[in-house]
Amino acid sequence: MPEMIINGCRLHYTDQGQGPAVLLIHGLGSSSRDWEYQLPALLPHFRVLTLDMRGHGQSDKPRRGYSIKAFAEDCLSFIEQLELNKPHLVGISMGGMIAFQLATDHPEVPGSLTIVNSAPEVIPRRPTEFAAAAKRLFFAHVLPIGTVARGLARLLFPKDEQQALREKFEQRWRENDRRAYLASLRAIVGWGVSEHLDRIACPVLVISGDKDYTPVEHKRNYVCRLGDARLEVISDSRHATPVDQPESFNQLLLDFLLPQAGHHSIHHNKT
């Protein structure tokens, strides 16, 4: 896995395939590995890049630099160093926030955005939202990382037949650096770019699991404020949609990306 020094931090990345560039941006406590179910679908058509954000995966875990804006600047530097032209950004959860930040700060950069189970802000506005944010921060800070990992795995993959996924992702999340994980979590709460959505100048696809943390209606509300944007909902899916429903997810992603890249999706007709 190659690496690059970006803003004083050593970041690991992958770079495979040929064609228009697609940059996959993972979520909180995750890494490039979480896109394993997308690579076989994307690589026949695209140059696919993944990046372990600072504090995550095999990248450095510095003591400073944890903010959504800083993550977005890391992505921008990565794009510039590799001279990627209008890359298509695909971000899940925190990765979607990073994509929103990059697209509002530098609207000329992305060719498109695919936002998965995410939103343009995580700002508590109601008493129940303040309580939920406080509860999440509290338990993340007092519980061992292994306990957090086990709880997340059970929440995201609750079915009996998902035991293998539960075990795989619990083990991955146990590998997180606790300090970097908590710093990244704190970076999310209170972040937002909702007031700048009109700056986004590229097509946007928003994908939501029907059982995601945040209701589909929340996503519908912000999609209405975007220009060239649409919302797709995948049934029987929670927060890790690319993992728990990879075939449906990959189909939507290809149907969105291929026409923009000049391909015809004749081989990817919906059944």
TrEMBL record:
One of its GO terms (molecular function) is hydrolase activity. Keywords: Hydrolase. GO terms for cellular component: membrane. SUPFAM superfamilies: alpha/beta-Hydrolases. The keyword Hydrolase applies. Residues 20-241 form the AB hydrolase-1 domain. It comes from the Bacteria. InterPro entries: AB_hydrolase_1, AB_hydrolase_fold, AB_hydrolase_sf. The keyword Hydrolase applies. This is Alpha/beta hydrolase. It comes from Pseudomonas jilinensis.
